[in-house]
Design goal:
By secondary structure, the protein is of the alpha+beta class. It has helices at residues 6-21, 37-43, 93-99, 149-154, 156-162, 164-186, 227-236, 274-293, 316-324, 334-343, 354-365, 419-434, 445-452, 465-473, and strands at residues 52-67, 72-77, 80-85, 107-116, 122-133, 190-191, 197-198, 210-213, 218-222, 241-249, 261-270, 297-300, 303-306, 313-315, 374-377, 399-404, 407-414, 458-464. The strands form four sheets. An eight-stranded mixed β-sheet has the order 6-10-11-18-17-16-15-14, sandwiched between helices. Strands 1-2-3-5-4 form a five-stranded mixed β-barrel. Strand 2 (72-77) and strand 3 form a beta hairpin. Helix 6 packs across helix 8 (274-293) and helix 12 (419-434) runs antiparallel to helix 13 (445-452). The chain starts with 5 loop residues before the first helix and ends in a 17-residue tail after the last helix. It binds one RNA strand through helix 1, helix 4 and strand 17.
RNA sequence: GAGCCCGUAGCUCAGCCGGUAGAGCAACUGACUUUUAAUCAGUAGGUCUCGGGUUCGAAUCCCGGCGGGCUCACCA
């Protein structure tokens, strides 16, 4: 006896025993089906109520409802629902003895002729009934379904069976990623896969997961970003346009917008700067929205957002000045920047640089007001160690982040290609690390060596797929858009 | 990691100013046999998340653990 199921489980086990006794395999190997529910509905759209056809089909799916003591079954396959009619006019005695051993939740195959009942339901008159998988556990209640958020995440298979909306969300997610891949491929971007296991975790500021390789006796880190490897490929000239859509791992807290593993699109293109990345961001997100929703006007949590490009471009300093009256570009030193940021409500630790102080104030006072899509430019250089300096103001980087609904959706820059400058930036990061900044980026000597062979000028772009899907599917939690989100084991 | 809230039958939920548990669906038995959350009658099903405490008596009050949700912090 399995835990907890008690009588319901025992009853179904007994039915399985009786099936064995009748020589019926409750878990056969295959079933030759000839139609899906949706295909039948499409084919017989015009079939009037009460009409019968001579078309013989074989359908298969999960029994989701039984009415009139099993005379009517609702069979659900991945495409939709088809009703099955079990009547002694069509189904033989062996079919009826099997029917008595079927339960809601079982997977069954049905062969028979198609008709539309007088009440208008497309139906297969069962001539043969085949059990394809006996369910030993009962499904959740048919009307309210599975509502418990924890169970929906832990037992996603049940969530998918019971909740149409959840299914739709993941189908949308697949369409979003598919649309991006297709568009990128059609524009000549090459998809690549780079390592998940990194000896040095680089390409972002984040705490990594550590693991260990036994044969090499080597600690390895689950990647926090693919960035440095992708740019190595640009050095190698594998393609002038390449991207990766894959997982990143960050060892940080969980929240409705953070899962320890998440999916990003990272893209690099030679011979362009970050201006090109803005246009690309707009195109990709509109492609994604149209794939998921068929429109570029979305509603998230009751807020309507129009994704139609072009999106405004505003600098961080400008937005901070508007919101707080503080002009960071007029502040020279770190201390003054910290005092100004704290005076306006940013929470600091006291060792922030000028750029970190401005960003903290931006996060505190500006970010969550950026509801409509906007590219925020003019990120401080000292928090952008992989970006080229702004060609007009060396305190800034040629970097932007795209915000929608107050969330960072994209992050892009004119990539730093000067190996000596890059080495200096790494050394600055190492100093910050030594001062206690755990997320400062470690020096990757091989990456600098790659730059020494010559990285063409290039733009790079990262888009957070999970959050984008949240926006497009109106999902309140990142766990609603990740099939198996990270949970404490129970 | 901190604060607030939640955990009752397989599922969805009542009960919670203390008197050892209810409904609907699912299940079982039967009726019905062209239904649509089918219907009708009946039956069975619970260490009330776990452990302590208070009390004559705890699902209910208190403390702690476990799991979850939200908010905050870190981040995308």
């Amino acid at each position: 006896m399995k835990e907890g199921e008690g009588e319901l489980y025992a009853v179904r086990l007994e039915k399985r025993r009786r099936l064995d006794a009748l020589g019926i395999d409750p878990y056969p190997y295959a079933f030759s089906r000839t139609a899906t529910a949706a295909a039948l509905e499409a084919r017989h759209e015009a079939l009037p109520a009460g009409a019968e056809t001579s078309e013989e089909v074989a359908v298969a799916g999960r029994i989701r409802a039984m009415r009139n003591s099993g005379m009517f079954l609702d069979l659900h396959d991945a495409s939709g629902k088809i009703q099955v009619f079990c009547h002694k006019d069509f189904l033989g005695p062996e079919g009826f003895s099997l029917l008595r051993l079927l339960d809601i939740g079982d997977i069954a195959g049905v062969k028979g002729r198609v008709r539309r009942t007088p009440r208008g339901e497309l139906t297969v008159n069962a001539q043969e009934l085949t059990l394809l998988a006996k369910a030993l556990r009962p499904l959740p209640e048919k009307f309210h379904g599975l509502a418990d958020i924890e169970l929906r995440h832990r037992q996603r298979y049940l969530d998918l069976i019971m909740n149409r909306g959840s299914r739709d969300t993941f189908l949308s997610r697949s369409r979003v990623v598919g649309a991006m891949r297709r568009w990128l491929a059609s524009e000549g971007y090459l998809e690549v896969e780079t390592p998940m296991l990194h000896p040095i975790p680089g390409g972002a500021s984040a705490k990594p997961f550590v693991t260990h390789h036994n044969a090499l006796d080597l600690d390895l880190y689950l990647r926090i970003a693919p960035e440095l490897h992708l740019k190595r490929l640009l050095v190698g000239g594998l393609s002038d346009r390449l991207f990766e859509i894959n997982r990143c791992f960050r060892n940080e807290g969980l929240s409705p917008r953070h899962n320890p593993e998440f999916t990003s699109l990272e893209l690099y293109e030679a011979y362009v700067d970050y201006g090109a990345m803005m246009a690309l961001t707009e195109t990709l997100i509109v492609e994604a929205a149209e794939a998921a929703l068929g429109t570029r006007r979305i509603t998230y949590g009751g807020t309507e957002i129009d994704l139609s490009p072009p999106w405004p471009r505003r600098s961080m300093a400008e937005l901070v000045l508007e919101a707080t009256g503080v002009d960071f570009l007029a502040l020279a030193d770190d201390g003054g920047a910290r005092r100004a940021a704290e005076a306006e409500g940013a929470q600091l630790e006291g060792r922030e640089s000028w750029g970190q102080a401005m960003e903290a104030l931006f996060a505190a006072r500006v970010e969550d007001r950026l509801i409509a899509p906007i590219h925020v430019t003019g990120f401080p250089r000292d928090i952008s160690p992989l970006a080229k300096a702004d060609r007009r103001d060396k305190r800034l980087a040629e970097r932007f982040e795209t915000f929608i609904y107050g969330w960072e959706i994209a992050n892009a820059f004119s990539e730093l290609t000067d190996p000596l400058d890059q080495n200096e930036r790494f050394l600055d990061q190492m100093r910050a690390r030594a001062m206690g900044d755990e997320e400062a980026q470690p020096l990757d000597e091989d990456y600098v060596r790659a730059l020494e062979y010559g990285l063409p000028p290039c733009g790079g772009l990262g888009i957070g797929i999970d959050r984008l899907v949240m926006l497009l599917t109106d999902s309140p939690s990142i766990r609603d858009v990740i099939l198996f989100p990270t949970l404490r084991p129970r």
